[in-house]
Design goal:
heterotrimer, A: 224 residues, alpha/beta, Rossmann fold, four-stranded antiparallel β-sheet, 7 helices, 10 strands, 36% helix, B: 172 residues, mainly alpha, Arc Repressor Mutant, subunit A, 2 domains, 3 strands, elongated
């Protein structure tokens, strides 16, 4: 089976600080993988490289077999929009747009008509359990609600892989567990692979595989 | 409780009197309840009966405190097997994890490997617990959460232990 | 993305964003109105017109072309203000662009959004330019004959309005695409070679302009003005950076903070410095002109005095307007900085940074930019004098000029300080906001 996400010897350095020293991993379709490690080990950087947000200094990032570096910027953005969903810890929704617009954004940016994009967005907001908040702006809602909207947005284009960076990080344990269930369920519903960067053991526990990083390298990899 | 295996670990450095075994334990676990002599000798007796330790010197006329015990080959095998296996995450296993880890480090075993496997085992158990819904009575969910929380706490400590060991290894 | 999506996403929603666009629209409306005025006057043709109906500036064909040129220049300057207004990013806008990028917007799409944002302001400004011109021409109609430099509009002038709308929208598009900051590249600091070029080229252009203006008229004046602007731009950058470094070494925490903020914000500050300096220069040279006209015994006729005074006075009024708006832009820029640095500032409250302290810092930051620029501009302008700039006859040096220069320089310095003090008052809500510990909880 072809990997939906493949990183090969990816390296990345922030000015004087080398965050990734050559990390390779593969994500199979529908797989759930947790990336763990102490702060500063490079796990967030890994996710940002996989999402195409950062360009690695060395190594290859392939999404559905397509090397991101080979594409011009415009097509790379389009690929990310359709094949990769991203959920961050916070701050990812456009603050002054209502949820329905936020969730519809990837479709709108892809050239879909407003009407159909909004319909799809409302369906997804229902799927993640916040249909009644569709017209509210992020500032009016709780962290749990906005994170659910983020999950909806990540999955609306039917990506093959969803990358989540500390998705429960800003939530209390109860809301965090609920969000985790929503995320897993939504990914399963779409058949999307899920890569979660987390320091929360309960999140890691729900994965099929755990990859642990230390100082920019993989320390160990275990099947769960 | 795995006291027997711990004694095997305490003997792995070389033959010793029962008293040395007790002293060794108390040095390894300064914050724990000191090991009782009675328990040491009972354990040693059982281990000898099972062929895991042997008496290599017995001062004539002396009681059990004058006997020198040593690990047998079988005993060494048993010890390394015990160090390899992760502790089944039942209630009260935390102590054994600690003992196992300390013993692994002190005897020069593969502590990092053990920690990785222990972590996986705990995570699997958490997943099991979370995937099967708890019974809908007043206390079962509480018990479930308690176990999960303790497992989580264990895992967090394991994380820091893993970091510390990796640091030590890096420093060396 | 579809046009509907583009417009919908480019729209500003937050109050801070909206006021930014409103400022730009107003500036472009005023600019458009001035352009309409220029076109309206150009429509009058090349021949001489009656002095009894029109102001001399319009009636005499030689002066008419000059008036048209001045109106176009003022329109361009006001357009420059629109640039400043649109340049002002807000933290909310930055967050929004980041969120859009995360949602999968490509760099081209983000650029399209910025351009659309500015183009909408341009379109609105162009549409408002018509009514604005009507209002302005009515206002000018109430002034004495000499001062009526904006003739009334006739229905046929509505045709002139269309190209103005198109021009303003196009201006918006150009401004938007020039201003679009690619998220990955930090604004480039002015390179050393650029600065040195400005310091050398500035005075050279000024000298060149002043020397050729008697022969080449407005061309020479324009060269001189361009040189002034260039000189101010380079020196203000140097001045701000030097001051910033010096303040950063100070033991006083207020100075230290001021120095840091100056260093991080040096490029927009030096641009505004240049604007203030150039305006001060023009005002000073005009004031010199008025003074020499009033003092000159040969031109005592009331019409003559009112002729010159009107011309200069109107120009000065326009320039003062620009100065006020430039100071406002500086203030808004500082307010912006506050928004961006909310978390850092809020975390300083634990160290005893309170509202009065922060007000002192802001005041210092603004004073240090506005006061020297205005004072220096006024000084040079008054001393050099309008006659030299426009290529007219240069009278014998009047010691009264120095007195005037001293007064105006002090006035400029004072004005800068007043503006900064006013800022402390106007921004008090923003300051309080920035220090709010709630900011520590936000992402």
């Amino acid at each position: 089976m072809n990997a939906v996400l493949e990183l090969e010897k990816v390296e990345y350095a922030y000015r004087r600080n080398t965050a990734l020293r050559g990390v390779s991993l593969q994500l199979k379709p529908g797989e759930v993988v947790a990336v763990t490690g102490a702060s500063g080990c490079g796990k967030s950087t890994l996710l940002h490289c996989a999402a195409g947000i950062l360009t690695p200094d060395a190594g290859v990032v392939q999404v559905d077999g397509q090397d991101l570096a080979e594409l011009p910027e415009e097509q790379r953005a389009a690929l990310r929009r359709t094949k990769v969903g991203v959920v961050l810890q916070f701050g990812q929704l456009v603050p002054d747009l209502p949820l329905v617009d936020n969730v519809a954004l990837p479709l709108l940016l892809g050239g879909h008509e407003r009407g159909e994009a909004h319909q799809a967005a409302r369906r997804w907001l229902d799927q993640v359990g916040i249909a009644e908040d569709a017209d509210a702006v992020p500032a009016e809602l709780s962290g749990g609600q906005t994170q659910r909207a983020a999950v909806a947005r990540a999955l609306i284009t039917g990506p093959s892989v969803v990358l989540a960076d500390e998705p429960t990080g800003s939530l209390d344990s109860r809301a965090g567990q609920e969000l985790l269930d929503v995320l897993l369920e939504a990914a399963r519903y779409r058949g999307a692979a899920l890569l979660m960067v987390t320091h929360d053991n309960l999140v890691a526990a729900s994965a099929d595989r755990e990859i642990r990083l230390r100082d920019g390298l993989i320390q160990h990899e275990v099947a769960l | 409780m795995a006291t027997a295996e711990l004694v095997l670990g305490l003997l792995s450095a070389g033959p010793a009197h029962g008293y040395d075994v007790k002293r060794g334990h108390d040095t390894w676990f300064p914050d724990s309840r000191p090991l009782a002599f009675g328990q040491v000798y009972t354990t040693l007796g059982r281990l000898e009966r099972d062929g895991l330790v042997e008496v290599i010197d017995k001062t004539s006329g002396g009681g059990p405190d004058r006997t020198v015990y040593a690990l047998t080959g079988k005993g060494r095998d048993h010890l390394s097997e015990w160090l390899t296996d992760p502790v089944p995450p039942a209630w009260g296993s935390a102590d054994e994890v600690l003992r196992k880890l300390v013993a692994a480090i002190r005897t020069g075993g593969d502590a990092a490997g053990f920690l990785a496997r222990q972590r996986a085992s705990h995570l699997r158990r958490i997943r099991e617990l979370r995937e099967t819904p708890a019974d809908d009575d007043p206390t079962s969910p509480l018990v479930r959460e308690y176990i999960v929380a303790h497992l989580d706490a264990d895992l967090r400590w394991l994380d820091s232990a893993l970091d510390r060991i990796s640091e030590q290894r890096g420093a060396r | 993305m579809t046009l509907e999506t583009l417009v919908q996403l480019a729209r500003s929603r937050t109050p801070a964003d909206r006021s930014r666009v409103q400022l730009a629209t107003a500036a472009l409306a005023f600019s458009g109105a001035l352009l309409l005025g220029a076109l309206r006057i150009a429509r009058l043709g090349k021949g001489e017109l009656g002095n009894d109906i029109y102001s001399n500036y319009i009636a005499e064909s030689g002066l008419r072309s000059g008036l048209i040129a001045i109106l176009i220049i003022l329109a361009a300057l006001t357009g420059g203000l629109a640039v400043q207004a649109l340049r002002l990013g807000t933290a909310a806008r930055e967050r929004r662009l980041a969120a859009l990028r995360l949602a999968g917007a490509s760099r081209k799409q983000l650029r399209q959004l910025t351009v659309a944002d500015a183009a909408i302001a341009g379109l609105a400004g162009g549409l408002l330019a018509g009514p604005a011109y009507l209002v302005l021409s009515l206002l000018f109609g109430a002034l004495p004959r000499m001062a009526r430099i904006l003739p009334g509009a006739e229905p046929i002038d509505a045709l002139l309005w269309i190209p103005v709308v198109v021009m303003m929208t196009a201006a918006g598009v150009v401004i938007g695409s020039l201003l679009h900051r690619d998220g990955t590249a930090a604004p480039q600091p002015q390179s050393a070679s650029q600065r040195h070029t400005g310091i050398v080229a500035g005075p050279v252009l000024i000298a060149l302009g002043l020397l050729t203006s008697p022969y080449m008229g407005y061309v020479g004046s324009t060269i001189a003005l361009a040189g002034t602007a260039l000189l101010f731009l380079s020196t203000s950058g140097l001045w701000i950076r030097w001051l910033g470094r010096r303040l950063q070494r100070s033991g006083d925490p207020a100075n230290l903070l001021t120095g840091v903020r100056l260093m991080t914000d040096s490029r927009p500050s030096s641009r505004i410095c240049m604007l203030l300096g150039s305006c001060g220069f023009l005002v000073g040279s005009m004031a010199n002109g008025i003074a020499s006209v009033v003092a000159d015994e040969t031109t005592t006729s009331a019409t003559s005095v009112s002729f010159y005074t009107t011309g200069f006075g109107l120009t000065i009024a326009g320039l003062v307007l620009i100065v006020l708006t430039a100071i406002a832009a500086l203030i808004v820029g500082v307010a912006d900085q506050l928004v961006d640095q909310r978390r850092q500032l809020a975390s300083l409250t634990a160290l005893g940074v309170d509202l009065p302290f922060l007000r002192r810092v802001i005041r210092r930051q603004l004073t240090v930019v506005a006061a020297p620029a205005l004072a220096a501009g006024l000084l040079f302008g008054t001393v050099i004098g309008i006659n030299r700039v426009s290529g007219g006859a240069v009278g014998p040096f009047d010691p009264g000029t120095l007195l005037l220069a001293a007064i105006l320089t002090a006035a400029g310095w004072l004005f800068g300080h007043l503006g900064a003090a006013a800022a402390g008052l106007l921004l008090r809500n923003q300051l309080r906001d920035a220090l709010d510990p709630e900011n520590l909880r936000a992402a």
